[in-house]
# Entry
Amino acid sequence: MEITNPPLETLENLTFDEIKVGDGATLSRTIRREDIQLFAAVSGDLNPSHLDELYARDLPGGEITAHGMLTGAIISALLGNQFPGPGTTYVRQDLRFLHPVHMGDTLCVRLTCTERIAATRQLVIACQVSNQDDVAIAEGEAVVTAPEVKTRRPRSALPEVTLTDRQRRYDALLARSAGSPAIRVAVAYPCDAESLRGALQAWREGLIVPVLIGPAARIHAVADTLGESLDGLEIVDAGFSAEAAEKAVALARTGKVAALMKGSLHTDELMSQVVHKVSGIRTARRISHVFVADVPRYPRPLLITDAAINIQPELADMVDIVQNAIDVAHAIDIPNPRVALLSAVETVNPRIPSTLTAAALCKMAERGQIKGGILDGPLAFDNAVSPFAARTKGIVSDVAGHADILVVPDLESGNMLAKQLEYLAGGLLTGVVVGAAVPIVLTSRADRADARSASCAVVKRLVARRLAAATL
# Structure
């Protein structure tokens, strides 16, 4: 008798009397990064050879490996679930580890009964583990007490586990921004710890060359508090926040920097200089803000607009807001983004203005007034991001359930949505302003340094795309 990858909707055991010498079972399991991380979290084994890619590069294999006992846990799973199954009690497990396991390896566990001990109703079971290339990973022997009573049980419901690997997502964003030179960025009023730390972190990551604008003595004092050196960086002295914003915008207007970055000043102070009719850097395009969110439970980057600049945009404003977001999506390698125009419902209702705006924007996209994306709306939030919700409501759409961009009807709803994704869903949010002569890193004053640095990675991509377009 041989059991191969049995279904786990129900668990049915084999009693001692049912198992003969030579009977066995097999189970295949592909090892994911999440498996290794979860095993480390449960076991407390934080050996960097399993978790730290930089550390593992210097080891013989050159990449992180799975814990040896993760292989042992898969053996235990087959023993406990199917062979013999529910009611089995471990007596002893001997294992010899023969070859490392890497992410992506598919392990095949083979169990074979080699001895029956009637006096104690114990089974001796040979254990062999190999990978997809038939390389032996581990071998050994388990001794278990087999169940006496036949049991068939429904599978127990397990709690859902979501890994919020913020550092991993941050590293992936930086990797997508590699390959182009650091851009020169005017940082307006970096006078608190996180705003200065974010600019310096982006500098160390090779994303930007910061020009720090604000009270020089205060900036140096913040750097001293952080234990950071400002050697080699340009500091433009400005006595107060409004002056810092004015000088930062002047550098952008004269082409001396490729982007701006908000420090610890209020958004209104910076943006009032950006949109100034005489000394600002406005273009014919409406200026808008785009959050780029990496949310653990969503399978792709999610752009949200506008949640920071336009309070109650009209239809003409929404055209530019959507086009700006599509341009950001193109810059981060989403070539034909799916744009969901959000409302409270998925049908046009004259009493809900956002549904009328959504319908008009879809028609404008059909006529070529908005380019580079696929629009659909109105869509409620659940229909935009959940294929199940879209199917349940009978929505047939290329966008519904798979949105890349969420266009909100007003600043209030967008800001609340973005902050919920960040603080309740564990999302890593970057914030950029587009539509001006240069892109602007615009994050909340409460944001951590890595969110500010990650925003610089997005802005760097925008600048690289603009320069590439200019050379065509």
Summary: The chain has a mean pLDDT of 91. Residues 2-154 form a domain with the Thiol Ester Dehydrase; Chain A fold (CATH 3.10.129.10). The first strand starts at residue 2 and ends at 4. Residues 449-470 form the longest helix (22 residues).
